[in-house]
Write a structure and sequence with these properties.
CATH topology of the largest domain: Beta-Lactamase
Number of strands: 12
Helix content: 40-55%
CATH class of the largest domain: Alpha Beta
Strand content: 15-25%
Radius of gyration: 31 Å
Largest sheet: 5 strands, mixed
CATH superfamily of the largest domain: GAF domain
Number of helices: 9
Order of helices and strands: HHEEEHEEHHEHHEEHEEEHE
Strand order of the largest sheet: 2-1-5-4-3
Distance between the termini: 88 Å
Number of domains: 2
Length: about 375
């Protein structure tokens, strides 16, 4: 231990000058490595906290791509996820076009993308089979793949690349990355579970369409977007004519089946951007973004005619149904100074009033109004 005493001590003079410099350099390297490891540990700890604070898939994808790149200065990053992760996101779909470095595949059909079939972390050169599918830059000299696994199931893989051959070497310690992989996998599982719970709270259990709570959220969002971009937004209110007679004559089971079959008939008539909800009882509401009154009226008439022409069979009963439909339309270019909530409320109120007018006029018809 006398090697590290003050250079003025007598004992140091017995150590050859070259040996002293070697020891000094080794000690300096140890200190520098400790400093770098401390910085790395701090970055990993901060990033882990960011991952665990992500409570939905969008924020998690942002953390795993943009924030990962910022925290660790990785030149190439490509996150590949199991396509099934996105199948439940009907109300608030994740738009992968917003993430240039995220891809979704049915991983069973793309098993060749996994480098180590055991599911272990990989570091080394880029396997040729990955270059084209993952669009790995040609100057990538070292590559890492972090499989994301939960309950013995591969849910994705994080692929990293660098032009520096020493960035991802096979002989490197992988403790930090393995821990990060475990936490990221857990966060993806949690985000999916939370989204499924959220979806269940926004879906009508009988018909499978949005419920009133979801409708109230969506119409505020769409009204805000319509006013901001000065576009048009239409709302349909649909009421089944004489629905009480169906319940009274055939029973509530047949009435429930009527609601299910009605919603199933309407959904194929709508666009992907449209929103259908069970507003309450036998009432349905439909939000039509970027749709003027003329085209909203055409859609409403097509729905009315389709249902009127359909012979429904419900639990052994042959039934016909007709609809009274009210249509209202908001012109986003006309700003009367009202709040978004008030504008949305007026849009709903006018559509509901048009249903009343349709019923008063004899039912099985469409009535509309521009607000």
């Amino acid at each position: 231990m006398t090697y590290f005493n003050s250079p003025n001590t007598t004992s140091l003079k017995t150590v050859p000058e070259r040996k002293y410099k070697e020891l000094k350099n080794q000690f300096t390297d140890l200190i520098e490595n400790a400093r770098l490891n401390e910085q790395l540990f701090k970055r990993f700890s901060q990033f882990e906290a960011l991952l665990m604070e992500s409570n939905d898939l969008n924020s998690l994808l942002n953390a795993m791509t943009k924030e990962f790149t910022r925290y660790f200065e990785v030149p190439f990053l490509k996150l590949v996820l199991e396509e099934d992760i996105f199948t439940h996101w009907h109300l608030a779909p994740v738009n992968l076009n917003n993430y240039d470095n995220v891809m979704a595949f049915p991983l069973k059909e793309h098993a060749h993308l996994l480098i180590n079939k055991s599911g272990s972390l990989y570091m080394g050169s880029v396997p040729k089979r990955l270059n084209s599918e993952l669009h790995v830059p040609i100057n990538t000299a070292s590559f890492a793949q972090l499989p994301l696994i939960r309950n013995n199931t591969l849910i994705g893989m994080l692929n990293l690349g660098s032009p520096d051959p020493a960035r991802f070497r096979p002989d490197m310690a992988t403790d930090f990355l393995e821990r990060l992989t475990m936490i990221a996998s857990l966060c993806f599982e949690n985000a999916c579970n939370m989204e499924q719970v959220r979806q269940l709270s926004l879906i009508d259990g009988l018909t499978g369409v949005c419920n009133r709570r979801a409708f109230d959220d969506i119409i505020i969002q769409e009204t805000s977007s319509t006013m901001r971009h000065q576009r048009q937004l239409s709302c349909l209110f649909i009421d089944i004519d004489h629905f009480k007679k169906i319940n009274d004559q055939y029973g509530h089971q047949v009435g429930d089946e009527a609601l299910k079959q009605l919603s199933a008939q309407i959904k194929p008539l709508l666009r992907r951007s449209d929103h259908i909800a069970r507003y309450g009882g036998e009432e349905f509401s439909i939000i039509l973004p970027e749709t003027d009154l003329y085209h909203a009226n055409l859609i409403a008439e097509r729905i009315r005619q389709t249902i009127a022409d359909t012979n429904f069979e419900m639990l052994g009963q042959q039934l016909k149904m007709t609809l009274s439909i009210g249509v209202s339309c908001l012109d986003g270019a006309s700003d009367g100074g009202a709040t978004i909530d008030k504008i949305a409320e007026l849009l709903i109120k006018d559509a509901d009033e048009q249903v009343y007018i349709a019923k008063k006029g004899g039912r099985n018809r469409v009535c509309c109004r521009l607000i």
